[in-house]
Amino acid sequence: MSTALIEARDLKKHYPLSGGLFSRSARQVRAVDGVSFSIEAGSTLALVGESGCGKSTTGRLLLRLIEPTSGEVLIDGHSLNEMAGRQLRRARRQMQIVFQDPFSSLNPRHSVGEIIAWPMRLHGLGNETAIRARVRELLKLVGLQPGHADRHPHQFSGGQRQRVGIARAIALESRFIVLDEPTSSLDVSVQAQILNLLQELKNQFGLTYLLISHNLGVVEYMANDIAVMYLGQIVEYGSAETIMSGPRHPYTHALLSAVLGPVTGERRKRLILHGDPPNPASPPPACRFHTRCPYVQDICRETPPPLEAADPGHLAACHFADQIPQYVSRGERNP
Ligand code: SF4
Fold first, then answer.
1. Beta bridge partners of residue 80, listed in sequence order
2. 286 in ligand 1 pocket by Cβ < 6 Å?
3. In this structure, are strands 78-79 and 70-75 parallel, antiparallel, or unpaired?
4. Do the beta carbons of residue 250 and residue 324 sit within 8 Å?
5. What gap in Å lies between CA 159 and CA 103, rounded to an integer?
6. Which of 33, 71, 120, 191 could form a disulfide with 11 if both were Cys (CB 3.0 to 4.6 A apart)?
7. Using one digit for the tens of pLDDT, what is the confidence trace for 52-82?
8. Is the CB of 300 under 6 A from ligand 1?
9. Beta-carbon count within 10 A of 70 CB
10. Residue 197 contacts by C-beta under 8 Å, 6 or more apart in sequence?
11. pLDDT > 80? residue 270
């Protein structure tokens, strides 16, 4: 039986657009527009898509760092909407975030020891001696030295600062962590080290991740499942292996063909996307991808394609999911 740790149900986040002093405009930016998924305990779901598609907003909605316009988030089957006070604090303790830019997310005036200790002090976890011991233990867990606790963020490299951010995220023994582009601001040489550390911690502590990334190499390495977002909606969802080897939505196909190498033996068809994503304040009607899709037909401009099974466990929101050229299987790719 599947055990969803985190579940999003029809999550929406709409921001009203200001139209000026005398405007009665009800236009809204639909940053997230009806997103549903679940993440099983101990697995990693990757949210991918171009910048501005709603990935980071979805991550913040899950953690309730921002309030949804509608919809709900459940942890262990219990809705955050129905929690308050101590119960909500306990639920929040289970959920943390690792930010993209470790420098701006760490207070430069505080020592690393104070930064890591802060959430433990906030939640009243142990006396000062116990918290200091835990800080030293966490520093070792993320590959730093216990003596680093007295240093300040500017005394570390980018990779080391991200290790501090990870130590802070696991300090409360949280079970669910949002990884918001965790390596995109780091040198290529240290990205693999941070990804390996995240995988080791996941295995050691049974962590559950939502990985937000535009880097499909990172996604392929880390994710069990993938949800592809376009203009605030999920357009494809399935296991990482299925989606990487055989996408059924043209947008996913384009994302993959933009970054992966040619096929050994048989050349695969490349799908190049033209233009930028439309304005999320006025998304195209019916299929939101129809203004950029090379396979568009009349029905795409008239009827929204439902997100439905293209194969068992593999969902795609495309009227022609069965006819989208199959992408190369993982084993056929050049390294
Ligand atoms: Fe393209 Fe039509 Fe499928 Fe939308 S529904 S992705 S426009 S083929």
1. none
2. no
3. antiparallel
4. yes
5. 10
6. 71
7. 899 999 999 999 999 999 999 999 999 999 9
8. yes
9. 12
10. 142, 143, 163, 166
11. no
pLDDT, one tens digit per residue, over 272-295 is 777 778 988 889 999 999 999 988
The total of other beta-carbon atoms located within 10 Å of residue 205's CB is: 15
Distance CA 244, CA 246 (A): 6
CB under 8 Å to 317, separation ≥6 — which residues? 233, 234, 235, 236, 249, 287, 304, 305, 306, 307, 308
| pLDDT value at residue 23 | 57
How many residues comprise the chain?
A: 335
Per-residue pLDDT, averaged over 113-119, amounts to 95
Mutate to test the pocket of ligand 1, among 231, 248, 253, 293 (most ligand atoms within 8 A of CB): 293
Using a 6 Å cutoff on CB, does residue 54 contact ligand 1?
Answer: no
d(CA 239, CA 314): 7
| Secondary structure class of 174 (helix, strand, coil) | coil
Q: Is 47 within 8 Å of 36 (Cβ atoms)?
A: no
Q: Is the pTM of this model over 0.85?
A: yes
3-state SS, residue 263: strand
From CA 279, how far away is CA 48, in angstroms rounded?
A: 18
Compute the CA torsion angle 227, 275, 318, 271 (nearest 10 deg): -90
- What's the 73 CA to ligand 1 centre distance in angstroms? 29
Q: Work out the end-to-end distance of the chain between its first and last CA atoms, rounded to an integer number of angstroms.
A: 36
